[in-house]
Design brief:
Elements (H helix, E strand, L loop, with lengths): L4 E3 L1 E6 L2 E5 L8 E2 L3 H12 L3 H11 L12 H4 L6 E5 L2 E5 L3 H6 L3 E3 L10 H5 L15 H14 L2 E3 L27 H13 L6 E5 L3 H7 L6 E6 L8 E2 L13 E7 L8 H11 E12 L16 H7 L5 E7 L2 H9 L8 H5 L8 E7 L1
Parallel strand pairs: 9-10, 9-12, 10-11, 12-13
Antiparallel strand pairs: 1-8, 2-3, 2-5, 3-4, 5-6, 6-7, 13-15, 14-15
Helix pairs in contact: 1-2
Length: 367
């Protein structure tokens, strides 16, 4: 199937700069710097074929100033607060920003004003200084490169009803064991990255909560002055048997470093566990914690939570300092749920970070 595209974007002016913003997102807005971007985004509102879009672009390119759209002046007055949404067949101005999006007031449809000239956006945002690069798109190959660039930015996506689900079109995952039958699970890749970043800080008397000797070998953390393991069940290599919710199982100010990886999601009250850890740490001691934010249920024995970055930071709020590490993007979130192994993805795909799609959330919190 030849890929088809549709525009998927929100545009907003701030400080005389045009941005592509992302709805209710923590992702940093992208600057729209070139006229060609606006032309392409408007073309793909109506036309989805790459070849036909290029034909339209060639017609628009020679002179984008011939057809002045006089009806746009009243709408420009709303751009200080307003946002413009581009989607399937529509160019919509929300005069009160996302508030209009929800409350459905001050909403104006603009796609018909240009009479199919694909100049609504360029004239609507004419007060913004954009690079006039239209003549630099000289052939179909350079046009495709620009399309792929806008797609990678998230401003173009597969046209409606053209998504190729492929191996995902079934109600069971690729691997039901997190990807272990295929290689390394995604969350382990991110945990390894976190450990690499913080390993030198794990020192002194160390406590690992919920671990086993096998986990210690996998983590390859420093052994410190001493290394003890706390687990809810007795077992080989377990030094302390007890529940992390019970503050009395460990004397206050006993440890310099406490590790708790892939455990807090199994705690019925992780905020109690985090506060107990603070009590067990020596002054200036540090907790090193990780939770999966996007992974299938794994009830060992129970699976209560998927702490997200804001919530994770909040339950550590009583610590004097904290540093948050967030890993993941839409592709790796899908891979994590589906059980696709890291060996099936590139380093670039794994290391790309999108703040709205956390797969693993980690923290270093100092008492």
């Amino acid at each position: 199937m030849i890929k088809q595209y549709v525009t998927n974007a929100f545009l907003k002016i701030e400080d005389n700069t045009l941005y592509a913003i992302f709805a209710w997102s923590k992702k940093q807005a992208d600057v729209v710097a070139k006229k060609s971007w606006l032309v392409l985004l408007e073309i793909f509102v109506r036309e989805h074929s790459l070849e036909k879009a290029y034909q339209i672009f060639q017609q628009v390119k020679p002179d984008t100033s011939q057809n002045i759209i006089h009806d746009l002046e009243n709408y420009r007055k709303l751009l200080d607060e307003g946002i413009v949404q581009l989607g399937e067949g529509k160019i919509t101005l929300f005069g009160r920003g996302f508030r209009s999006f929800i409350e459905k007031d001050s909403v104006f449809e603009l796609e018909s004003l240009g009479d199919n000239t694909c100049q609504v956006l360029s004239q609507l945002f004419s007060q913004v200084s954009l690079e006039d690069d239209l003549t630099t798109i000289e052939d179909f190959e350079s046009f495709k490169r620009l399309v792929y660039h806008l797609e990678n930015m998230g401003l173009l996506s597969s046209a409606i009803n053209t998504i190729d689900w492929g191996d995902f079109r079934k109600p069971v995952p690729i691997c039901q064991a997190f990807g272990l039958t295929r290689g390394t699970p995604v969350d382990r890749y991110y945990l390894s990255q976190f450990i690499t970043a913080v390993r030198s800080g794990i020192t002194g008397n160390i406590l690992e909560i919920g671990g086993t000797p096998k986990d210690k070998d996998f983590y390859q953390v420093n052994q410190g002055t001493s290394y003890k393991i706390l687990n809810i069940e007795a077992g080989l290599g377990v030094d302390i048997v007890g529940d992390v919710h019970d503050v009395s199982i460990i004397e206050p100010e006993s440890f310099d470093s406490i590790i708790i990886f892939n455990v807090l999601e199994h705690c019925y009250a992780p905020w109690i566990a985090v506060e107990n850890i603070r009590q067990w740490l020596k002054p200036n001691g540090k907790c090193f914690a990780m939770v999966p934010s996007a992974i299938r249920l794994h009830a060992t024995p129970m699976d209560y939570w998927r702490p997200l970055p804001d919530g994770f930071a909040y339950i550590f709020r009583n610590y004097s300092q904290q540093e948050l590490f967030v890993y993941g993007n839409p592709m790796t979130a899908i891979a994590s749920y589906q059980g696709i192994a890291t060996e099936e993805m590139t380093t670039e795909e794994l290391d790309a970070i999108h703040p709205d799609y956390p797969v693993a959330t980690c923290i270093v919190a100092q008492k």
